Amino acid sequence: MSAVAAGQKVLVVDDEEHIVELARLYLSREGYQVEGVADGVQALNRFGQLKPDLVVLDIMLPGMDGLTICREIRKTSQVPIIMLTARDEVTDKVVGLELGADDYLTKPFHPQELVARAKALVRRAKLEPDQPKLIRAGKLEVDLERHEVRFAEHKLQLRPKEFDLLALLAKHPGRVFQRSELLDLVWGYDFPGYTRTVDVHVQQLREKLAGGGVTDPVIQTVWGVGYKLELAAT
Q1: Would you say the pTM of this structure is higher than 0.70?
Q2: Is residue 3 predicted with pLDDT exceeding 60?
């Protein structure tokens, strides 16, 4: 049982019973307390009662769809939300992210991937319990609500994980993150062999920031350790 997960509550909203039971089985093994509901109206009612630490939310639901539920939850809570979809539709993902979803899984998915992403989101929420909606780092603005990055009023086009990586670094300017720590918090993986993924995304992020004219802040390499976001001296 994970010490991090012990006592953490997860609300799984899906009208497919086998999905709920699969999520319950794997998440319970990690110490999460899992409750499942099958329709949208019940989901909102139970959310208010349970006050979960994570919501796993299907898009296609009877009564009220997952996007509407996500919108309603975001009016009062910044609880991490993983959205499920049976279709790999870019539009669904974009709308979900704009409404405040934190991550996406396309059915069918491996339950261990759900567990990994759940751990990452809950850890991130614990790290940032009072997460601001707008992060300013130097002349850069990271808008978590709109899922946008702006520099000098111009939007920068970032992929989802590039955005998540930049947002995490921007929340803690000057703090050095180990590659394994970034991999865990952003990707939800804790396997040392995947740290190359972090290096690739940092390089891509640096190129996009430079291409957008961003000179403050910069992502610096701390040799033998990891990365940090450094603000220009004032």
Answers
A1: no
A2: no
